[in-house]
Amino acid sequence: MDKNEFLKAIAEILMTDVNNLQEETTLDSFSEFDSIGYLEITMLLEKELKIEINPSDIKSLKTIKDLLKLGKFA
To answer: How far apart, in whole angstroms, are the C-alpha atoms of residue 74 and residue 70?
Structure first.
């Protein structure tokens, strides 16, 4: 999975267009960034990128850039 594929998957989870995902975009600006969203992002990281993370750790992320760093894309 490359950076663009990762962003497309995140956009799908957050139910938005990938063009709305700028590095400085705050995750809490998306209504879908909730407990289900945390779980889906956790599953994406574990399944596609082989990165183990606790869903509660996703909650502490603030921006798209934070997610990219976690996925080792930044």
So the answer is: 8
Cβ atoms of 45 and 70 within 8 Å: the answer is yes
Tokens of 62: 């603030």
Q: Using CA atoms, how far apart are residues 33 and 23, in angstroms rounded to an integer?
A: 16
pLDDT more than 70, % of the chain: 100
Residue 47: other Cβ atoms inside 10 A: 10
Q: Report DSSP letters for 6-41, one per residue.
A: HHHHHHHHTTS-GGG--TT-BGGGSTT-SHHHHHHH
Whole-model pTM: value is 0.90
As a whole number of angstroms, the distance between CA 18 and CA 4 comes to 9
